[in-house]
């Protein structure tokens, strides 16, 4: 069998994929990195009905076949297609939806781990809203911070509340996620990274590490970063990042470890 590759889907300016790709190459792993533009300009041989394998021939001559892929790291934040950059919003949205369906169909047919799946313009979907993931985290025995949702920030709706994370929820609206003031307010986050069955950053907390892995799996993700703050009751989860930065050498190494193991299993 031909040696399989780690397929990294990422834009050219994604530094995280550079860190991970470099660590993989230093270990002797084959890495194929492609962007949205590469995928959009490639020649596809794909059957949605599941008849036969998929083959892509890229504009620069590179090729990838289902049987040559061992694991996928998807770092794409969006599926903006260069050919539709100047099209009408309606045409651009339609083309993006069709392309997302094609990419999702292909990745779901691969019999290898994919971190993480494609889901249109919002890769993390409504299920990743704090109202949803707080419940899932608590169900796995993870302590979570009190959470307040304000439908608007007008009229002082956020008075007395502290937002620990940097993102509004749901993304793209004026609904804001806020944490109550108190122990969790203003504290620095400790980021824990989950890659498959491995948890990076909780070496001494085996029970919590297992719960984090189970929580990320319940979200339907293969990798994610979880932001904790230290409280009187122990580590308390306040942030979820399904597409975390991986520029730290240790974190990139943990990601590369998982990808290498998955590659070895596939090969």
Q: Could you explain the architecture of this structure?
A:
With 267 residues, this protein is an alpha+beta fold. It has two domains: 5-121 and 250-266, Rossmann fold (3-Layer(aba) Sandwich), CATH 3.40.50; 126-242, 2-Layer Sandwich (D-amino Acid Aminotransferase, Chain A, domain 1), CATH 3.30.470. It contains six helices and 14 strands. It has helices spanning 15-26, 36-41, 89-109, 130-139, 206-218, 249-266; strands at 5-9, 30-34, 43-45, 55-57, 63-65, 69-74, 114-115, 147-150, 161-162, 176-180, 190-195, 198-200, 223-231, 234-241. It has a four-stranded parallel β-sheet with strand order 2-1-6-7. Strands 12-11-13-14 form a four-stranded antiparallel β-sheet. A hairpin with a 2-residue loop joins β13 and β14. 30% of the residues are buried.
Give a concise summary.
The protein is an alpha+beta fold. The chain is built from 6 helices and 14 strands. α1 packs across α6.
**Tally of individual domains:** 2
Low-confidence stretches: 120-124, 167-176
> Helical segment tally?
6
Proportion in helices: 25-40%
Estimate the strand proportion: 15-25%
Tell me the structural class: alpha+beta
Distance between the termini: 8 Å
Principal-axis shape equals globular
What would the average pLDDT be, to the nearest integer?
Answer: 83
Largest sheet: 4 strands, parallel
Order of helices and strands: EHEHEEEEHEHEEEEEHEEH
What order do the strands of the largest sheet run in, or round the barrel if closed?
A: 2-1-6-7
The oligomeric state of the chains shown is: single chain
What's the number of extended β-strand segments?
A: 14
CATH class of the largest domain, please? Alpha Beta
CATH architecture of the largest domain: 3-Layer(aba) Sandwich
- CATH topology of the largest domain, what is it called? Rossmann fold
Radius of gyration in whole Å, from Cα? 20 Å
């Amino acid at each position: 069998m031909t040696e399989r590759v780690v397929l990294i889907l990422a834009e050219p300016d994604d530094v995280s994929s550079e860190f991970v790709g470099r660590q993989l190459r230093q270990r002797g792993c084959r890495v194929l990195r492609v962007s949205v533009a590469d995928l959009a300009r490639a020649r596809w041989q794909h059957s949605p009905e599941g008849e036969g394998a998929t083959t892509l021939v890229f504009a620069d001559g590179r090729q990838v076949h289902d049987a040559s892929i061992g694991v996928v790291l998807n770092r794409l934040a969006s599926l903006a297609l260069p050919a539709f950059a100047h099209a009408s919003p309606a045409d651009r949205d339609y083309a993006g939806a069709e392309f997302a369906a094609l990419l999702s169909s292909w990745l779901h047919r691969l019999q290898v781990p994919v971190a993480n799946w494609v889901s249109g313009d919002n890769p993390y979907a409504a299920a990743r809203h704090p109202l949803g993931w707080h419940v899932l985290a608590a169900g796995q025995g993870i302590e979570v911070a009190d959470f307040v949702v304000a439908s608007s920030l007008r009229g002082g709706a956020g008075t007395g509340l502290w937002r620990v994370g940097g993102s509004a929820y749901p993304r793209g609206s004026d609904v804001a996620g806020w944490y109550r003031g108190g122990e969790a307010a203003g504290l620095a986050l400790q980021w824990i990274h989950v890659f498959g069955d491995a948890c990076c950053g909780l070496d001494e907390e085996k029970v919590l590490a297992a719960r984090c892995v189970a929580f990320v799996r319940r979200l339907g993700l293969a990798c994610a970063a979880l932001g904790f703050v230290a409280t009187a009751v122990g580590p308390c989860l306040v942030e979820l990042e399904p597409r975390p930065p991986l520029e730290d050498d240790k974190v990139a190494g943990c990601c590369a470890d998982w990808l290498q193991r998955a590659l070895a299993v596939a090969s």
